[in-house]
Amino acid sequence: MTGSSSWSQALVQISPYTFAAIGIAISIGVSVLGAAWGIYITGSSLIGAAIKAPRITSKNLISVIFCEAVAIYGVIVAIILQTKLESVPSSLIYAPESLRAGYAIFASGIIVGFANLVCGICVGVIGSSCALSDAQNSSLFVKILVIEIFGSALGLFGVIVGIIMSSQASWPAKAA
Amino acid sequence: MYGFEALTFNINDGYLEAIVRGYRSGLLTAADYNNLCQCETLDDIKMHLTATEYGPYLQNEPSPLHTTTIVEKCTLKLVEEYKHMMCQATEPLSKFLEYITYGHMIDNVVLIVTGTLHERDVHELLEKCHPLGMFDSIASLAVAQNMRELYRLVLVDTPLAPYFSECITSEDLDDMNIEIMRNTLYKAYLEDFYKFCEKLGGATAEIMRDLLAFEADRRAVNITINSIGTELTRDDRKKLYSNFGLLYPYGHEELAVCEDIDQVRGAMEKYPPYQSIFAKLSYGESQMLDKAFYEEEVKRLCLAFEQQFHYGVFFAYMRLREQEIRNLMWISECVAQNQKTRVHDSVVFIF
Q1: May I ask which residue range the UniProt record assigns to the signal sequence (chain B) (predicted)?
Q2: How far apart are CA A28 and CA A78, in angstroms?
Q3: Contact criterion met (CB < 8 Å) for B22 and A40
Q4: Is pLDDT larger for residue B80 or for residue B166?
Q5: What residues of A are in contact with residue B6 (Cβ under 8 Å)?
Q6: A17-21, A23-27, A153-157, B260-264: which range is least confident on average?
Q7: Which residues in B have their CB inside 8 Å of a CB on A?
Q8: I need a surface site. Which of B47, B85, B108, B217 has the fewest CB within 10 A?
């Protein structure tokens, strides 16, 4: 690389493997953070409300399952992303194609991680309200569940875009 | 941060919020009150109450029931629920729950001091104290002769200590001074509670601000009406009003110079929320004012449950229970004295 030292040069001198690995880490780590956040928000309300109204426990586990699904999305995408990591010969590490592949995996990880984070929190808050209202009036459960279904679709959007993004992450072929 | 309580509230307080909402679903409904109002004897009331949440507390009572027994057992239920919540709570919810009981502590202190003044036995007075407001050294209140001793001997170790700075005098305690002391203490307590809620911030501050402002305004009106015709000067009356609420400061200035109820009505009609309360009363009548205020308070307390992730639900639940106990006491007294036509004079339906 040449001796110039502006920040734009700094970015392209970081190995694309770094970006790809961080992307995979964020994909699973932040998704699990979102799922855990949602589960504790729902779980604490569900436990307290079930003391007075024990009938709500089995139905309201659906909220917890929706939050858990968010973590599973993160795991699936992380596994897909790590199969996309290939070795390239050292002369090609900083070639534009390699950088593009590294950035694509990084972006895919961020998309999935943060979409699942907010999805998990969203489903958790709705699940908490769902448990509390179900304890008072059992006809409300199905209606609030519809809201939760819409909320959990947010995580799916993230997964879809993340997979599309990573599918075109192609490392340069070995130099002839 | 306001608006984002949902993210972190449940870490410490989600379980207790769900529990208090479960307790709320056990409050008596209008159908229960209708059944109770149609009872002929206290035993009928006991039978109806045994079918509600009060069952385990009343079913072992022997048959010649007194109204005081019913009220005592219902209060016992409230105290047990409070203690259950208190032992699970962490800061700052535990501090908030303690604040709710300071009002009862003030009432207990005044009860014991007044009773001692009228030469009643200390143990008899202790039995009449509200259980939520008990503290350790309460029995030694009977020894004090004036306020300074009261403070130095007993109250300096209690949570009420900071409220005494405005009312320590060396005068001997008599009926008038004791009422002024009660109102001064309550004023300091409400302001302290208000500041505490503002410090908590977020939805708790907003909802408690509204509920405490209503309480402060209601007390201002009651102080005004009760001190019409007594020796309390205008300045003294003004000193008893709290420094917050819808009526502060201009409403207080008008209330301080009121000499009869119609002037009070005139002062209050400038404020839309209170105008609707006073519109329910015809001119010159003040007996229904208490009930009108209670109805408005119950309406606001029920609204506190509409939002999740704040502490206002705990305050609202304690107040609604107290209102329910007042209702039960009124109904029991009416039934015991055979005055069933007056039952609906003072029962405030919650749902």
Answers
A1: none
A2: 6
A3: no
A4: B80
A5: 41, 125, 128
A6: B260-264
A7: 6-7, 10-11, 14-19, 21-23, 25-26, 308
A8: B47
Name the amino acid, one letter, at B130: H
> Cα torsion for B258, B245, B294, B71, to the nearest 10°?
-110
Find the closest chain B residue to A53 by CA distance.
B22
8 A C-beta contact, residue A104 and residue A34? no
Complex prediction ipTM: 0.88
Q: In whole angstroms, give the CA distance from residue B209 to residue B211.
A: 6
Residues of A in contact with B23 (CB under 8 A): 52
Give Cα B98 to chain centroid, integer Å.
14
Q: Tell me what the pLDDT averaged over chain B comes to.
A: 86
Residue B231's contacts (CB-CB under 8 Å, 6 or more residues apart) are: B176
DSSP category for residue A174: P
Q: Which residue has the tokens 């229904």?
A: B288
Q: Max Cα separation, chain A?
A: 72
- The pair of structure tokens assigned to B109 is 């202190």
CA A106 to chain CA mean position, Å: 12
Please report the residues numbered 43 through 82 in chain A whose beta carbons come closer than 8 angstroms to any beta carbon of chain B. Answer: 44-49, 51-53
**Which position has the higher pLDDT, B250 or B192?**
B192
- What's at B124, amino acid-wise? E
Query: For all residues of chain A together, what is the average pLDDT?
Result: 92
User: Which of the residue ranges A167-171, B117-121, B212-216 would you say has the lowest mean pLDDT?
Assistant: B117-121
d(CA B168, CA B164): 6
pLDDT(B343) > 90: no
Q: How confident is the model at residue A176 (pLDDT cuts 50, 70, 90)?
A: very low
Q: Which tens digit of pLDDT belongs to each residue from A126-142?
A: 999 999 999 999 999 99
Note whether B130 and B108 are within 8 A (CB): yes
Put simply, whether A129 touches B (Cβ < 8 Å) is yes
Are the CB atoms for A159 and A109 separated by under 8 Å?
Answer: no
What's the first-to-final CA gap in chain B, in angstroms? 32
The answer to whether A132 faces chain B, any CB pair under 8 Å, is yes
What pLDDT, on the 0 to 100 scale, is given for residue B285?
63
What is the pTM assigned to this prediction? 0.92
Q: Is A10 on the interface with B (CB under 8 A)?
A: no
Question: Three-state DSSP class for B258?
Answer: coil
Structure tokens at B66: 């007194």
| Residues in CB range of B20: below 8 A, 6 or more apart | B85, B313, B314, B317
